[in-house]
Amino acid sequence: MTTRTPAFAPYENEADVLEVGGLTLENRLDRITVSGDVDLTADRQGLEAARLLHALLGQVVAALEARELPEHLPVPSVTKVKNPFA
């Protein structure tokens, strides 16, 4: 059984969102947000999920290794706006 990795271009858009079990990977231009949880069970389904995560994280590592990286990203600026519906 082979795992087909879905299209995911790390750090290249603000649109890609993938789910593996209850785990969500959200693509951003400057970060990948991973949230939720997944059980990697000792069965074929767990193996498939583990292979998918392995492939996706391999893509993330490769994308990071191909860049010149700063030591730390600056904290994003947040602008508070008046609620237009209030």
Please provide a written account of the structure.
This protein has 86 residues and is α+β, with helices and mostly antiparallel strands. It has a domain at 17-65. The protein is 26% helix and 19% strand. It contains one helix and three strands. It has one helix at residues 44-65, and strands at residues 17-20, 22-27, 32-37. The protein has a three-stranded antiparallel beta sheet, with helices on one face. A hairpin with a 4-residue loop joins β2 (22-27) and β3. The protein is extended. The chain starts with 16 loop residues before the first strand and ends in a 21-residue tail after the last helix.
Q: What is the alpha-carbon Rg in Å?
A: 17 Å
> What order do the strands of the largest sheet run in, or round the barrel if closed?
1-2-3
| Separation of the first and last Cα atoms | 55 Å
Q: Work out the strand percent.
A: 15-25%
Mean pLDDT: 91
Percent of residues in helices comes to 25-40%
Number of helices: 1
